[in-house]
Design a protein that fits this description.
The protein has a domain of 114 residues. Helix content is 57%, strand content 2%. Strands 1-2 form a two-stranded antiparallel sheet. It is elongated and about 115 Å long. The relative contact order is 0.05. GO terms for molecular function: G protein-coupled receptor activity. It is found in: Membrane.
């Protein structure tokens, strides 16, 4: 969720804490109403599992499901928005168009989730309000189809945008990997292997290639030698006998 902010051990602890919290939360949400309100759960048809039709039960219907839809949508918009803004700033500073496209692609995830939960939430609010207008049957069916298609929408988003986030191979990822690989695996070829030799040292300047360390250097250190300009010389051959 926050790239670069947590190390590996912190991510594992956070994931374990979230799993424990989810199981504990579901257990409490199911057991507390069932033990305090008689005939709270039952078969209600196509929608909810709460059989009570009182005003308090309607509030519990919203608070036990749809309020968390809205909370998740709001948190997703805020967190993804923060990440996208930071990525856009980095992409603009570095003139990285690939990073810019990735940031814009991430916006679709919270937008898709909000679009999935909004119709069904609106239908339920209208159904809970006995004095207000009732939603038409076609709109109810459409809202049910949208929320039931959330898995297909997630797969479609992954195919269209997720491939840029490193989950699978892509041409852009290959180019980036090639740039990183070329930056540190370039073979080092000595000038002698290419037929280049430094000019002979003279009294007027130039240092021989085998010059020892300077006196002020510690005995165990070696000064980096910056050679004079190299000139091409043919390989030396031994004199004839």
């Amino acid at each position: 969720m926050f790239p670069g902010m947590l190390n590996r051990s912190q991510v594992r602890r956070l994931a374990a804490a979230m799993i424990v919290f989810i199981f504990l939360f579901i257990t409490l949400m199911v057991t507390i109403p069932a033990t305090t309100i008689p005939h709270y759960y039952g078969d209600t048809g196509a929608w909810c599992w709460i059989t009570d039709t009182s005003v308090e039960a309607s509030r519990l219907k919203i608070g036990s499901e749809y309020a968390y839809f809205w909370l998740a949508a709001a948190v997703s918009l805020v967190l993804y928005g923060i990440i996208v803004v930071n990525w856009l700033r980095e992409a603009t500073a570095k003139r990285d168009r690939r990073r810019h496209r990735e940031a814009l692609s991430m916006v679709w995830y919270p937008i898709a989730f909000t679009a999935e939960v909004f119709p069904i939430s609106l239908v339920r609010l209208l159904q809970f309000n006995r004095k207000g207008p009732r939603p038409r049957h076609g709109f109810v069916v459409l809202a049910a189809i949208i929320i039931a298609s959330s898995g297909a929408v997630n797969v479609l988003l992954w195919l269209l945008t997720g491939r840029r986030f490193g989950f699978s191979d892509s041409p852009e990822g290959d180019e980036e990997e090639d740039r990183r690989r070329d930056s540190y695996t370039m073979p080092m070829i000595s000038p002698a292997e290419r037929g280049l030799h430094p000019p002979a040292a003279t009294a007027g300047g130039g240092l021989p290639i085998s010059h020892p360390s300077f006196p002020e250097d510690p005995p165990t250190t070696q000064r980096l030698y910056v050679p004079e300009p190299y000139v091409w010389m043919p390989p030396r051959t031994p004199p004839p006998p």
